[in-house]
Amino acid sequence: MAVCPECEADIEMDEYDIDKGEIISCPECGVELEVLGLAPLELELAPQDEEEWQE
What is the pLDDT of residues 11-52, one digit of tens each? Predict the structure, then answer.
């Protein structure tokens, strides 16, 4: 289980169903999260598109 860094909701996922580097959505707030680690499950806000960085 991990905690969403945006809304602090508990996110429970099976580590066999996801891969490191995969982008998932928080079921509570919908923000996109990147999987940084699997054991334990570690999540971080996903990077935005490069086009948005240049604005």
Answer: 998 888 899 999 999 999 999 999 999 988 999 999 876 554
The residue range of the domain holding 54 is: 22-55
- Tally of structural domains, the chain: 1
Joined tokens for residue 35: 């999987």
Backbone angles phi, psi at 53, to 5 degrees: -65, -30
Instruction: Please state the length of the chain.
Output: 55
Distance, in Å, from the CA atom of 43 to the CA atom of 55, rounded to the nearest integer, reads: 26
What is d(CA 14, CA 52) in angstroms, rounded to the nearest whole number? Answer: 32
